[in-house]
Amino acid sequence: MSKKLKWGIVGCAGIAKRAVIPGLHLSELNEVAAIASRDGDKAKQTAEQLQISTAYDSYEALLADSSIDVIYIPLPNHLHKEWAIKAAAAGKHILCEKPLALTAHEAAEMAEAADQAGVLLSEAFMYRYHPRYETIKDLIANGAIGEVRGIRSAFTFNNAGDTANVRYRKAWGGGSLYDVGCYPINAARLLLGKEPEAVTVNAQFSPEHDDVDMMASGLIEFEGNVSLTFDCGMWSAFRNPLEVLGSDGIIEVPSAFVTPTPESGTIFVTSGGERKEVEVPYVNAYTEQADHIARAITEGKALTFGAADAIRNMKVIDACLLSAREHQRVIL
Fold it and tell me: Ranges for the GFO/IDH/MocA-like oxidoreductase domain (predicted)?
């Protein structure tokens, strides 16, 4: 294996071009060696724009490239399972966009394929690789805000005018819970270190957008009567805050999931009536994510966030979608 792990990108999705590939370019452990598209011209143009040496006109050709170590999958949600399983069969490690699959059952099939092939499979929740989340966990563990009483979070944006967008195709895994609601759910599980017991979700489904959930709000119940209250949407103004409420204080994360600038990574702690800014380093979370995966591969270590975590997150999303459709509380 070469000094740097060689990555192949399956598809020319916006998230790949805008964030993941630039993050990989900053890495000392990884490099983007190839990109594939079913449109050969598109692959070539993207490769030229982003300084990628090789472009393929099919995903199969990319998977057949023996020099590629890791495959990144930013395809529409309904294609994640197919291409992750094919990548595993080709002996490639896999970073797959969130949500990992359309259901927990699909995610488990992907995990089994990766396990049988002896490759790593991880879900691309880049935010959790930012060191501020370790800081938040330490603050909670050290009692900076007392006992945790609840978490509140949101992730919304407005793209509703683009009705041809893949986010608005129900059969393709469209909808706000899949696209952005997965973040608050994932973050609450991460910070509380436990799994939910029940969920109740209300959603706005839009006939103009193939009946996907355009907005959703929910209550995720954890052990000890601690809950996450959240909302998500693709039909409202942009925001992505997170707040951990304690018996004696509050941790505020104004921009919980995206950190494009140094200021956007800021967190605040209120304790004893005083609100203080907590210093955190400015890093590229996409680079940190890739480097973590590289170290796990080269050092033979388990991923901090492996396929099992993705399956558990999908179980919660499954329950949220069921709750929203059936108008009922769902016990996990």
Answer: 133-252
Classify the C-alpha dihedral 122-124-130-136 as positive or negative.
negative
Q: Which residues pair with 267 in a beta bridge?
A: 278
Among 320, 292, 298, smallest CA distance to 122 is for: 292
Structural domain span for residue 24:
5-126+287-305
* CATH label of the domain that carries residue 154: 3.30.360.10
Instruction: Check pLDDT > 60 for residue 1.
Output: no
Spell 194-203 as b/e; 16+ CB within 10 A means b.
Answer: eebeebbbeb
User: Are 265 and 122 contained in the same domain?
Assistant: no
Q: Answer yes or no: do 132 and 204 share one domain.
A: yes
pLDDT mean across residues, the chain: 97
- Decide if 229 contacts 210 (C-beta within 8 A): no
Query: What span, in angstroms and rounded, lies between the C-alpha atoms of 103 and 109?
Result: 10
